[in-house]
Amino acid sequence: MNAPHAPETVPQEFWSEIDRLTGAGALRRLSGVFARFIGSLGHAGGPLMLATVVLSELEGRGHSCLELADLASDPAALLGWEAPEWRALAATCGTVPRTVKTWREALAACEPVWCPGDFDFGEPLVLEEERLYLRRYWRDEALVADSVRQRARTLRAIDAHEVKGWLDVLFASNQRHGEPPDWQRLACAIAVRGRMAVITGGPGTGKTYTVARLLALLFALAGDEAQRQRIALAAPTGKAAARLKQSIEKALGDLAERVGGALPLRELTTRMGAARTLHSLLGARPDTRAFAHNRGNPLDVDVLIVDEASMVHLEMMAALLDALPTTATLILLGDKDQLASVEAGAVLGDLCHDAQAGRYTQETLDYAAACTGESVPPQFAGQGGPLAQQTVMLRHSRRFGGPIGQLALAVNDGDTARAFAVLRAGDAAVQWQERASQQSVVALAMEGYRPYLDLVRTDSHDAKPILQAFEAFRILCAVRDGEWGVEGLNAAIEAKLQGARLLPRGGEWYAGRPVMVTRNDYGTGVFNGDIGLTLPDPQRPGSLRVYFLEGDTVRSVLATRLRHVETAYAMTVHKSQGSEFRHTVMVLPRERSAVITRELIYTGITRASQVFTLMSSGGTVLEEGIVRRTQRASGLRGKLA
Ligand SMILES: Nc1ncnc2c1ncn2[C@@H]1O[C@H](COP(=O)(O)OP(=O)(O)OP(=O)(O)O)[C@@H](O)[C@H]1O
Questions:
Q1: 3-state secondary structure of 333
Q2: Residue 432 phi/psi, 5° resolution?
């Protein structure tokens, strides 16, 4: 596409500076092209051009808007630049606003900017209060906020006595005097009364255990209607969806044995359809962002459970809420402290803003006490909004009590001293190679991947045990580039494994190659983030297939049909969300980086079920990362309040 002509209102030096910064890698090319496009739409001016470039850069980093307060206070920091770099760019624009008020006035006067309340000409930028948006993010944010508020407010009449009766059947024990409340029982009681609930908690806090009981409770309360209830399970990735279904089925199976004839739970299990990815649930189609399901063609469900909700980005959440009938119940499950989605938005984080504090009104507390017999300590009382009343945080992990859990908690609390103490304690479950090198990471990979490679060489035709062996170990990187990044490590590990004759030499495709899909491919049914293993095709000697493990099911695709894949001995922490490995190795680069944040480190640690190894060169990058929070500009929290 040819860039539109540069607007006359901005001097040529501005565009020269933009080109220079783009050439130097400080800006993505798209930002300059987009600013030129905005400038071509009518009266714009230097401040809007500057703000547009910053907005576009931030969008690429996951922000859904630009806060004018940040623009006024420290624009260079916002971009991760040095102050002189920003000053050089700003100097080409003449007088630049310095306060939120003057920024707002300057932007509001520009033709490509719409301020809600004014006549709407469909301008591409929206200035709402003190935030500048790309129109589609503003629209998505408004849709999510309206829909969530509406759903959270819609409560149905509940017979507390009946709910308590069922909860006593579904849960083994009750709160004992002086003990903390059973948040799982509370979560069921809260969720059952609304059109929406959010259940958040760290790994092993029982989100799936709870939601299985919630489904049983809904089933019990529905009476004759239960036979007609349509329940759907979904998650952002195929693997997470399969895991959700497997865990719910197991939990319902265990529960069925306990409750016996009191509830026909096996019937509930058989009536639950396959767990789907959100893309497939909504009816994604090739070459368009629009889904088959939307307000005009809503989903055919009564209860929708979405797991790993931290990975759901703003656009996807808006599409989901748009397609969900207002009469359906939405239950979001996820860990609010995990990394947000790669794409714009930090929706679960925003929705869970009050989760830690509770902020339950007296009405909620009375309702919860009547339904559960549990009493919530006074520190969780408050005047939270409708969504806070429908949000429950599970606070007790049953799987994560040991050193891995202690490390995850310390990191989550931003307590570097405690984190270092756990790392240095020398427990077998948490190991730290403080002076690691690329060679030591490669050596660890050789050891960790050997079991699956040994199985590959047996020429077994059973892919499942090989996939399970591969799933037991993983190298996770914080960055993509460099010798400590995904690219450098994959090349080094592959070369070493070939050198040791654990892998065949040469060729892009070989038996044993793990791959990650990098783009959705509707033809082959594989999606961005899916991980598979290349193995010989038993039906066609000499050809290779890529096998994917989803829960208990294995499916495969001819290797040559997969066009968008990369080798995956090492993968990013981002892409590892929704997965768990027996032994997880996290590699932190030597160089400082703004992408290494508390959320990233926490997410990496919590991927390990039995052993966590940290590979780093010294402790500075780790220490700075634990302190650095992911900050994503968004107006959602404000709109939900
Ligand atoms: N109240 C409970 N009583 C007994 N066991 C429980 C209880 N809650 C959870 N568990 C057990 O703890 C383990 C973790 O629970 P679950 O898988 O539901 O956690 P989760 O929060 O969904 O974890 P993840 O985020 O890793 O998916 C499971 O084995 C589950 O059966």
A1: strand
A2: -135, 115
Give the DSSP letter string of 26-83.
Answer: SS-HHHHHHHHHHHTTS---HHHHHHHHHHHHHHHTT-SSEEHHHHHH-HHHHHT--H
**577 contacts 309 by C-beta, under 8 angstroms:** no
Q: Name all domains of the chain by residue range, CATH numbers in brackets.
A: 12-129 (1.10.10), 142-397 (3.40.50.300), 403-627 (3.40.50.300)
HSE-CB for 499 with a 13 A CA cutoff: 9
Three-class DSSP category at 2: coil
Residues contributing to the annotated binding site for ATP? 201-208
- Whole-structure pTM value: 0.89
64 near 31, Cβ under 8 Å?
A: no
DSSP letter at 356?
T
Cα 340 to ligand 1 centre (Å): 23
Q: Of 368, 428, 394, 397, nearest to 583 (Cα)?
A: 428
Give kind and range of the element (H or E) at residue 277.
strand 276-277
Residue 209 Cβ inside 6 Å of ligand 1? The answer reads yes
How far is ligand 1, taken at its centre, from the CA of residue 203, in Å? 8
Rounded CA-CA distance 13/89 in Å is 9
Q: Give 290 or 282, the one with higher predicted confidence.
A: 282
Of 167, 208, 243, the residue with max ligand 1 atoms within 8 A of its CB, to mutate for a pocket test, comes to 208
Query: Would you place residue 2 in the very low, low, confident or very high pLDDT band (cuts 50, 70, 90)?
Result: very low
pLDDT in tens, 131-185: 999 999 999 999 999 999 999 999 988 999 999 999 998 987 665 656 788 999 9
Residue 220 backbone dihedrals phi, psi, to 5 degrees: -65, -40
CA 318 vs. chain centroid, Å, equals 15
> Which of 638, 495, 480 has its CA nearest to residue 566?
480
Place of tokens 């017999």: 373
Show the tokens assigned to 444. 């660890």
